[in-house]
Task: inverse folding
């Protein structure tokens, strides 16, 4: 059965009323997918590209616009010319990457020699990080190398990551790191 | 024969297990606690929480190593022994339009052992409360014109779904092609089930219950009796 | 990838070697299967029978780390049996070039080797030039000094018997693979190679790929539909992050990181802009200064101008001859010279070779910033196995990033397709997009550097940082900056075009070196133009050649060219070599089909080429693909060397056991063990479909963990018998560097190798586990075993071949 994305949207947005009651005339509610189909009625649909390997498969994310604003369903995008709706096990599990109780939801801080994490605010964390960067950079910054050539760099701070960032994020990230004078800039491409 | 069918071409299955996860996602089924038992196959078996399971077998055939994958699921039998064993359309019924064999919460009122034993493919699994579960053909999706989640996600064309006519034709055509390189290729019980497998080796090498055994179809007197009164049951179900 | 995913379906023969596509790039099999349905043969070469092998027509095993021997044998087979595509080889490759007399090869060493420096003097491998400064050539390939004849001589030693003794592949299997693959040397046939880290993660990684590239050139498979050299990249945006150069040695668009000796922008441009004296060579990199200056304008905006060398001195310089790669970075951290560490969207406590060294190194830091979706082995290294938190001074800031479908932006797949994605739900909890975190951090840094006493604050204060809308990170603004703008009204009289200040640059052909254009990355110039966001395109329509290019679906670099080097897919008249799957075609006035490698007309002839034409390989200085590669650190031809750790004392191919230029390290954590009875087994690492990389994004997911719950070691039934190990039991794995507990999978899919008359056993581990998830804390990273030793060109660690042992608990 060939279903294009347009058709997919029509279908999943359509009322599934009538399903709950079959020809038998009594409730068959244990078939949970009926209810799920109804839920997708109020879904916002956005396309995404799978975040795992670099095949670049398309997926459709259905987000609840009425309840908690969270994801209801993610499945392959039938109009994506590479994967044509298919996804492997990791791609098929994308839903659980987002809707996952193990996710990190607050900035955390570990003080020197501490045994535990402490929850902190974004503003505090970023302010403290900026201070650490400045302190280390200013202490380790070299205007010239041993030969007296201008190098304007710090070898006291290093960065790794990330192929998990979007292109635009990669670009501003490398710009920031290079402006700080980092030369140790690496990421997944080499490992 | 009207209704729907699957065609599962195991010669194209690479065990990415997209189907196994897509099934869990769509049906909202939780993960099970598992351990590695010296195989990639996990969970170990179908369960109340696992309707679809890719089975892995390493075999040597004619001196050549084969890693066989079998995406196991309910066959949605044309004349479903489980439906007959249950003999209660409020618990197990066949959807008329698709032929999907559907279990409801009322299965907990059945003699679950009897239903499980009736299945020639060893599919139904009971929860602690006694209710039974298995693949429901993603009936909600199918009724809305979508293919089942497992079929939709399959990258290689191993999983297929459509009208029974279309699937039978696809299966036969494909068998003709595969037979040229795999002499033992065959379709498993194509006339009895709505989930038609194509295998390239002896079906027993994939899974003990890949193909229905006669003994399985003849297991209980209860089922045999129910078969006798089948026309009546069917009549009831279609009222 | 030179080609792209859909194009695999056009192939006549697919070799999957150094990768395991069915498990790590499963959707590629949509196209592998398509090609097979059309009659293509699938070959799987792997130490272990994998899910890829299960789909293959031909499976051949080889011992990890012996790919050059295997492929060198194929080169010999192709040459001995005259299976190479002569027209292609003489027209498009450097096989006709004459190599200078200083070149030589003896006992495993090329001329110019300096043993104390572990380096070659590459000037010994230079081509002979004519009076005009153009390489001398013999298009008949007969001159004994020609690349072609030297190639023949070099691989004459790689006979199947010797190859088989090294690789452990039965000779019959070698010949079967060679014969099948080499058949695509016929005009109109194309074979493709799908490789990944199974080839790169070796001390001879670069040369593994060079060997295959030579085969593809000999068979005329580059530029063709269904051909090419295809690196299957492992992360959704590792292509994009490489293009934007989150790497020490390159600036966005593969420009060079300036060396300390490049004392000014002019000196830098002079050093890195290649010069060709050949009027038929496009020598595309001659445009280098246009790209470097435009990039600096994107960095510093109006603050960069001719007056200050466009801010060239504000960016850091690296020392000449020194490497700052992953291995070097952790080596320095281990030695304690590094104080601050950003581990952004990466988990080096599990992902890097010799993970134990890296974890210990982290304890030497003053501070670490760790950005991730989940708590992980890196951010929590101080509470990991064997660590004593109260002795570790490192401060750690762990920041929650949102997932990819909670934000907007683009990623670039392995086929170079830049694809836009959208925000579904808002970021969960207090997590933020990486873009927002970077922007806010940048703003905080600009704030703290307002202070006049700060050290060298110009680059930080002058950095263009206006990529927000209503206080939030705006991916569109950055995407436009990456594409680039006209910064003045500019006329191009030759092209009969003019542009206004503020317009987006339509393609890199319009970039200029005078500061009148910006472009954050010249390769992406054309991706976001006045016509809109090209990456967001969704057209289902194929191009006129109907080979699955889908030119208006997303966008790919460079300039939407879907198959690169496509000038080599045609004959000298511009007509396709493969009529059924043609890529480009000259219609008498222009090229049709894919975006050609430049619009110049066909060559016409080799002896008297059309002066308006260009040689096919436009990115090479001399316009020809390099069968002889004089730029590589370890030799112009690939040669078999054993891995740093190997099971045999002598290299059967030559007198050098290991790559004489490999990057080795010397701390107490860098133990290596060869032919050591404590570590008799060859080990390798890999991934499984159910987890991804270190598993950090997949191990906390119940559905995926359910399928692969524990780290395992796969071994043959023969080895298990020797070790009395039962299938499914927990065992202990060790190497000279570390150890871990894992579950034994005793399988028919591993077989002992016969290496030079002896039995060698190999085992393999997935590296996608770590102690943080699952919460049992017992599943550890296989990188605790792997060595920190690297390829001399790339410094990619050799995690794919090392020595280890496995024993009962």
Result:
């Amino acid at each position: 059965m060939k279903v294009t994305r347009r058709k997919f949207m029509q279908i999943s947005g359509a009322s599934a009323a009538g399903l709950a009651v079959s020809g038998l005339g009594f409730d068959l509610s244990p078939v949970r997918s009926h209810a799920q189909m109804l839920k997708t009625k109020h879904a916002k649909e956005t396309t995404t590209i799978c975040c795992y390997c670099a095949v670049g498969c398309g997926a459709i994310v259905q987000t609840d616009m009425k309840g908690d604003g969270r994801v209801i369903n993610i499945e392959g995008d039938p109009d994506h010319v590479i994967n044509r709706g298919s996804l492997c096990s990791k791609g098929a599990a994308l839903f659980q990457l987002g809707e996952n109780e193990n996710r990190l939801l607050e900035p955390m801080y570990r003080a020197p020699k501490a045994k535990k994490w402490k929850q902190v605010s974004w503003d505090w964390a970023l302010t403290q990080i900026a201070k650490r960067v400045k302190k280390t950079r200013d202490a380790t910054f070299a205007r010239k190398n041993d030969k007296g050539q201008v190098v304007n760099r710090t070898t006291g701070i290093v960065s790794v990551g990330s192929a998990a960032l979007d292109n635009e994020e990669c670009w501003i990230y490398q710009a920031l790191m290079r402006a700080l004078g980092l030369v140790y800039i690496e990421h997944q491409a080499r490992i | 024969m009207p209704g729907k069918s699957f065609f599962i071409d195991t010669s194209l299955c690479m065990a990415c297990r997209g189907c196994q996860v897509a099934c869990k996602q769509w049906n909202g089924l939780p993960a099970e606690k598992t351990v590695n038992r010296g195989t990639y196959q996990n969970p170990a078996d179908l369960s109340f929480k696992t309707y679809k399971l890719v089975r892995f077998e390493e075999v040597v055939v004619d001196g050549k190593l084969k890693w066989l994958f079998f995406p196991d699921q309910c066959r949605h039998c044309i004349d479903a022994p489980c439906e007959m064993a249950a003999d209660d359309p409020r618990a197990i019924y066949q959807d008329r339009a698709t032929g999907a064999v559907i279990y409801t919460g009322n299965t907990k009122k059945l003699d679950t052992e009897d239903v499980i034993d009736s299945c020639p493919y060893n599919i139904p699994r009971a929860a602690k409360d006694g209710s039974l579960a298995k693949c429901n053909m993603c009936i909600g999706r199918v009724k809305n014109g979508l293919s089942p989640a497992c079929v939709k996600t399959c990258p290689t064309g191993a999983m297929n779904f459509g009208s029974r006519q279309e699937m039978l034709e696809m299966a036969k055509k494909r068998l003709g092609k595969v037979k040229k390189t795999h002499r033992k290729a065959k379709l498993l019980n194509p006339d009895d089930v709505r989930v038609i497998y194509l295998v390239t080796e002896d079906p027993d090498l994939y899974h003990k219950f890949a193909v229905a055994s006669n003994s399985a179809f003849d297991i209980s007197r209860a089922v045999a009796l129910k078969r006798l009164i089948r026309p009546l049951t069917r009549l009831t179900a279609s009222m | 990838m030179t080609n792209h995913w859909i194009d695999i379906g056009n192939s006549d023969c697919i070799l999957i070697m150094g990768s395991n596509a069915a498990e790590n790039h499963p959707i590629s099999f949509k196209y592998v299967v398509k090609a097979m349905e059309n009659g293509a043969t699938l070959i799987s070469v792997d130490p272990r029978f994998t899910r890829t092998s299960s789909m293959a027509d031909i499976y051949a095993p080889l011992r990890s780390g012996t790919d050059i021997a295997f492929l060198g044998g194929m080169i010999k087979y192709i040459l001995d049996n005259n299976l190479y595509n002569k027209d292609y080889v003489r027209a498009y490759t450097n096989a006709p070039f004459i190599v200078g007399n200083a070149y030589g090869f003896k006992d495993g060493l090329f001329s110019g080797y300096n043993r104390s420096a572990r380096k070659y003097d590459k000037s010994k491998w230079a081509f002979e030039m004519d009076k005009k400064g153009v390489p001398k050539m013999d298009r008949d390939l007969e001159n004994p000094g020609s690349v072609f004849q030297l190639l023949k001589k070099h691989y004459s030693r790689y006979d199947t018997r010797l190859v088989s003794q090294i690789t452990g592949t039965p000779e019959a299997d070698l010949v079967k693979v060679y014969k099948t693959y080499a058949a695509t040397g016929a005009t109109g046939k194309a074979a493709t190679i799908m490789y990944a880290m199974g080839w790169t993660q070796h001390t001879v990684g670069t040369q593994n790929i060079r060997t295959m590239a030579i085969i593809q050139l000999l068979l005329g498979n580059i530029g063709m539909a269904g051909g090419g050299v295809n690196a299957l990249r492992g992360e959704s945006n590792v292509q994009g992050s490489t293009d934007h150069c989150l790497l020490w040695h390159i600036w966005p668009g593969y420009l060079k990181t300036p060396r300390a000796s490049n004392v000014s922008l002019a000196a830098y441009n002079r050093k890195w802009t290649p010069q060709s004296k050949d009027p038929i060579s496009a020598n595309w990199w001659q445009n280098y200064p246009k790209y470097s200056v435009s990039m600096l304008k994107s960095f510093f905006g109006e603050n960069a101008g001719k007056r200050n060398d466009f801010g060239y001195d504000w960016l850091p310089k690296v020392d000449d001859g020194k490497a700052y790669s992953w291995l070097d970075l952790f080596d320095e951290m281990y030695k304690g010279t590094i104080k601050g560490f950003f581990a952004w969207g990466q988990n080096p406590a599990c992902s890097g070779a010799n993970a134990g060294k890296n974890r210990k190194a982290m304890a030497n830091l003053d501070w670490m910033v760790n950005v991730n979706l989940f708590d992980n082995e890196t951010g929590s290294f101080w509470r990991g196995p064997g660590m004593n938190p109260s002795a570790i001074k490192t401060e750690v800031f762990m920041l929650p990033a949102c997932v990819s479908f909670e934000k907007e932006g683009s990623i670039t797949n392995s086929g170079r397709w830049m694809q836009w994605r959208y925000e579904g739900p808002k970021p969960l909890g207090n997590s933020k997009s990486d873009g927002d975190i970077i922007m806010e951090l940048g703003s905080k840094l600009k704030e703290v550097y307002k202070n006049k006493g700060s050290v060298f604050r110009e680059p930080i204060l002058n950095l263009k940082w206006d990529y927000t809308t209503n206080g939030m990170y705006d991916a569109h603004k950055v995407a436009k900056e990456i594409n680039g703008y006209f910064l003045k009204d500019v006329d191009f009289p030759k092209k009969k075009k003019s542009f206004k200040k503020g317009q987006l640059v339509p393609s890199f052909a319009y970039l200029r070196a005078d500061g009148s254009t910006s472009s954050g990355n010249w390769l992406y110039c054309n991706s976001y133009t006045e016509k809109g966001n090209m990456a967001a395109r969704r057209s289902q329509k194929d191009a006129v050649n109907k080979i699955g290019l889908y030119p208006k679906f997303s966008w790919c670099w460079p300039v939407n060219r879907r198959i690169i080097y496509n000038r080599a897919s045609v004959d000298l008249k511009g007509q396709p070599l493969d009529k059924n799957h043609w890529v480009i075609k000259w219609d008498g006035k222009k090229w049709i089909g894919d975006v050609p490698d430049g619009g110049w007309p066909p060559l016409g002839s080799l002896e008297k080429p059309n002066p308006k034409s260009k040689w096919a390989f436009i990115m090479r200085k001399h316009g020809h693909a390099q069968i002889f590669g004089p730029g590589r650190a370890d030799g112009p031809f690939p040669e078999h060397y054993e891995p740093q750790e190997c099971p045999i004392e002598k290299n059967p191919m030559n007198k050098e056991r290991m790559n004489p230029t490999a990057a080795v390290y010397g701390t107490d954590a860098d133990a290596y063990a060869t032919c050591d009875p404590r570590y008799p087994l060859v080990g390798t690492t890999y991934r499984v479909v159910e987890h991804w990389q270190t598993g950090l994004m997949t191990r906390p997911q119940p559905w995926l963990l359910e399928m692969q719950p524990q780290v395992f070691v796969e071994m043959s039934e023969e080895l298990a018998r020797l070790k009395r190990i039962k299938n499914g039991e927990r065992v202990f794995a060790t190497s000279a560097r570390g150890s871990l507990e894992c579950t034994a999978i005793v399988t028919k899919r591993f077989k002992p190798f016969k290496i030079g008359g002896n039995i060698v056993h190999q085992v393999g581990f997935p590296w996608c586990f770590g102690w943080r998830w699952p919460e049992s804390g017992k599943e550890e990273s296989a990188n605790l075993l792997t060595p920190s030793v690297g390829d001399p060109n790339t410094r990619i660690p050799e995690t794919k071949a090392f020595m280890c042992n496995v024993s009962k608990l």
